[in-house]
Amino acid sequence: AYCLLTSHIEVTATSRHYVDRLFDPDPQKVLQGVIDMKNAVIGNNKQKANLIVLGAVPRLLYLLQQGSSSSELRAECAVVLGSLAMGTENNIKSLVDCHIIPALLQGRCMLTVCVTPCQDPTVIPHLMSLLSRSQRTQEYITQIFSHCCKTPEHQTVLFNHGAIQNIAPLLISPSYKVRMQALKCFSVLAYENTQVSMTLVNVLVDEELLSQVFVRMMQRDQPIDMQLTAAKCLTYMCRAGAIRTDDSCIVLKTLPCLVRMCSKERLLEERVEGAETLAYLMEPDVELQRIASVTDHLVAMLADYFKYPSSVSAITDIKRLDHDLKHAHELRQAAFKLYASLGSNDEDIRKKITETENMMDRIVSGLSESSVKVRLAAVRCLHSLSRSVQQLRTSFHDHAVWKPLMKLLQNAPDEVLVMASSTLCNLLLEFSPSKEPILESGVIELLCSLTQSDSPALRVNGIWALMNMAFQADQKVKGEIVRALGTEQLFRLLSDPDSNVLMKTLGLLRNLLSTRPHIDQVMSSHGKQIMQAVTLILEGEHSIEVKEQTLCILANIADGNTAKELIMTNDDILQKIKYYMAHSNVKLQLAATFCISNLIWNEEDGSQERQDKLRELGFVDILHKLTQASDPNLCDRAKTAMQQYLA
Amino acid sequence: MAELGAGSLLLGDPAFNYQEAELNERLKRLYPAVNEDETPLPRSWSPKDKYSYIGLSQNNLRVHYKGHGKNHKDAASVRATHPIPAACGIYYFEVKIVSKGLDFLSSLLPLSPIPGWDKHSYGYHGDDGHSFCSSGTGQPYGPTFTTGDVIGCCVNLINNTCFYTKNGISLGVAFTDLPPNLYPTVGLQTPGEIVDANFGQQPFVFDIEDYMSEWRAKIHGMIARFPIGERLGEWQAVLQNMVSTYLVHHGYCATATAFARATETLIQEDQTSIKNRQRIQKLVLAGRVGEAIEATQQLYPGLLEHNPNLLFMLKCRQFVEMVNGTDSEVRCFSVRSPKSQDSYPGSPSLSPRHGATNPNLHSAGADSPTCSNGVTPPNKNKSHNKYPGVSSASSSSSSSPSSVNYSESNSTDSTKSQPHSGTSNQEETRCVQTILTTVSALLCEVSKKCQTLVAVCVLVEDSCASRQLCGGNQAATERMIQFGRELQGLNEQLCREYGKNVTHKKMLQDAFSLLAYSDPWNCPVGQQLDPMQRENICSALNSAILESQNLPKQPPLMLALGQATECVQLMARVRSGSCSFARVDNFLH
């Protein structure tokens, strides 16, 4: 400890010398002192901290603000302050505490201070007021805003301080840098912000609508950076609902511009940004997806994103290889994202994507890449394609995509898990040839564990997959599901706060309770709990869909041989069925009637007794009434049921 | 092209004329480098180059199918009137599918020497979205298209590729390595199929100008970044030499000396020689041609004797300047303006003409003719273009019936064509020529007839107060008439020595015909009086002097400029499309 202390004092002592020289009466010596200080602090965080502690900052600020200081000295002071600001968070805090911001606004070092998001709201009005001062201040201040604006709250703060009105005129500044920074600022402000976007569409710059100004900036002879950023602005405005997706400035300008950004001629960074922005633009709109899919061979163009680092670059140029390697992941994930977006609705586009060279292989290898970003994007792409019945039947099976998918599910962050399990749901649909091998790979345990997740999305996907799996499954699989899930968990899911989870759990129950032998078997072992759960749901506050699904379960139970008795002996349930037969909602009436119809079916043992009991309970009268119902389905169902009595 | 347009169109239709004007304007804007005299642009389908199953209507822009359409053999096509000129750089046209017929199969072929699916034809099919290239089997290319869709075809003659568009969206490159001389073509196969072409008659759905702007920027970038490499030093010396010789050539003596000092280069020609040339040029530009001839004969004896053509040109100009009242031979009669007063304003002020925008020349034009006669126009009525003076001349001094005739024909002529408009040049000059033969006949015959002319001239003086012939001086006018006779004599002499010279005859006729108008400044041949016209003769004289001194008659800068311009034109002829975006004008500011 002693030793350390000594060294600390020593460092401070040399630092002291630097600070002392700032107070020299000879301005020439002061200047030399500042220059030496500049050289001493570069890249040395400790030295920076020392100088700050020793009070260099107020002195530097004083020199900077002093009119008598030579411009050379002032410039050097600003550089040192900028350098100090490049250090640790603490250093920056100290600088801000010294009221550095108002003093430094003409200098470039401001930028480094503010690259770390500045939280002090009083700074913003001051910055706004400085916008009119010079092209320099305009450039830097807009750059500061773009850097600092990280959250919706930041957007709102800037918006409320009149950022739009103040920055819009800068879009037609004679300086390219100013135009560019103002444009970037708008792209940051408009991102996922309806309030800003709605305001932007009505802004006029020199009697021209802002969207038209952006369109001009996207002209093909403009610098790429400007085209891309302008396209981003319009994309964000469109996604926020401020511009219609069929507006010509989106269809004929923004979309083609973004497709151009994906071309081989662009830099790798530009291609990544272009693809990501395009994916975002068309995500919710099938028409845009269709247009993009035929624009400039986009689908084929994206295949090139997977060719980095290319074998050529490895041999010819180490620098290039390094560059390619750095961007390879980004390129792949961007391409996957764009494919996912392209194929999210249209069957033809999905077909086109899967027919692209080595596409399925690329997805398969993408699923097991080290980069989480790539894995996530690959699984998103797979998910998008898995919505196609045809692809599930063909390419998905041919490439055994379930294998890497299963592997991915073993150990992945939640966002990847959500996508992967959702894809798995589709792969478990009954017509999917992958269903069998997946079942054999021990997926049930995994899905059951998903149902215990804290994330509602994962619980839904887990139970959804089980539901799909149970559809028309054999007894062995059903038994396995029930065993693995456990009745306790099953009933916990039936009281899940998330209505989606509840719906899918009921769906699972319904699928488990299909075909007579299965019904009786399940009911014999779990009848009591199931009846209890059904009662609870029918009594509770639930949506029509949930109640309908529950009544359908009852109808299935009523179809069993022995299971029927569980209903017949439960007067409470019978009363509930009666209630729903007279419900105002036809769907519920239909399901309840179906249930009764199963109970009184003639050809089964004890049908006479059941018919009599139900007649006593007044069901015949209700059925009679229902034969007059306006809904033809309901009317038919009631008539069929009535015939059981007549036979 | 022209006969086609005339054959099928009503000339008086204003709507059509408007469309035609719009088409011309759009084509000019899109393809400024195309010389339509050499390579006309496609403007409609060709009624000659089509299958019989094809019907054309609506100014040959609408195509419909009138065959059986039973199988592929019934397919028919039509091509445009002209192939796509390489100088377009980037060419584009669109077709709107008005009706797709029963079983649609349509194709666009940017090329087909004889319409059809044979070699060198390229197309995009509507029914399957396939592209096909010189064969019947297609490649998957784009989406299908149908009624209401607008399909565009863009041929890039810079990289010889082609892409199609559908409803304003580019579908990406369809073909590469295209051969030259492509024709816009459309093919149809089923009854009921109708398509409308747009070769620029209407705005395009696809933003082709935006696409062009990208290529323009690319090519300009390429030129700007053209590597000079190791020859950098050499390059600089060449540039300095170009500037220096240019300054010397035009006699910017002081500037040239300063430039030579700054760049430490040498000037080939000596100072006095430059100054002499400068002096002569100044005289010509000031309209004092007589003095210029004198000075030339004095400083460069034998020069004009060896260049009889040049001498004749100078003398003709001198005559014109006499009419103008600027030449010293007539000006000495004028009391108001002593010889020394008027000179060409500014110091060395001759510069080659980039268009007609030389400020010095404009100011010269403004003050040199009016200053010399010293009369300010009391009421300059510009719309005044009937010639009362002429008609009164014919009534008062009707000694010669030929002059009556002539004045009549003149007045009809003047009402038909406004002076300086230059619209119907040929017609104008033909009319003028008939008059002129009379005038020149008058001049070279006996002196009696001269009096008639003088009478005309005097009468002119009364009616036109603004600018007056020979400064309005009687003696000067007589001198001018005499000079005219001498000039005529010179012409005859030259004819005897060197044979007939059409140019000389024309020059003489033009000059003399000035006298035929009451207001020569405001007549069909009045342009001769414009001081700007002095430039050509001035540079011809300058070049002749330089040549006689064994110096280049043209400055290397102009040579390089001319060569560059010629190269770009040559590029168009050898079908290099980038010429359209590498125009020399773009680099002259």
Automatic annotation (TrEMBL), chain A:
SMART domains: ARM. Its main location: cytoplasm. GO terms for biological process: proteasome-mediated ubiquitin-dependent protein catabolic process. One of its GO terms (cellular component) is nucleus. ARM repeats lie at residues 55-91, 485-527. SUPFAM superfamilies: ARM repeat. It is found in: Cytoplasm; Nucleus. Keywords: Cytoplasm, Nucleus, Repeat. PANTHER family: ARMADILLO REPEAT-CONTAINING PROTEIN 8 (PTHR15651:SF7). This is Armadillo repeat-containing protein 8. It comes from Oncorhynchus tshawytscha. The gene is ARMC8.
Automatic annotation (TrEMBL), chain B:
Residues 23-204 form the B30.2/SPRY domain. It comes from the Eukaryota. Residues 391-414 have a biased composition (Low complexity). InterPro entries: B30.2/SPRY, B30.2/SPRY_sf, ConA-like_dom_sf, CRA_dom, CTLH/CRA, CTLH_C, LisH, SPRY_dom. SUPFAM superfamilies: Concanavalin A-like lectins/glucanases (SSF49899). Residues 336-429 are annotated as: Disordered. CDD domains: SPRY_RanBP9_10 (cd12909). It holds the Pfam family SPRY. Coiled coil: none annotated. SMART domains: CRA, CTLH, SPRY. Residues 337-350, 369-380, 415-429 have a biased composition (Polar residues). Residues 273-330 form the CTLH domain. Belongs to the RANBP9/10 family. This is Ran-binding protein 10. The lineage of its organism: Eukaryota, Metazoa, Chordata, Craniata, Vertebrata.
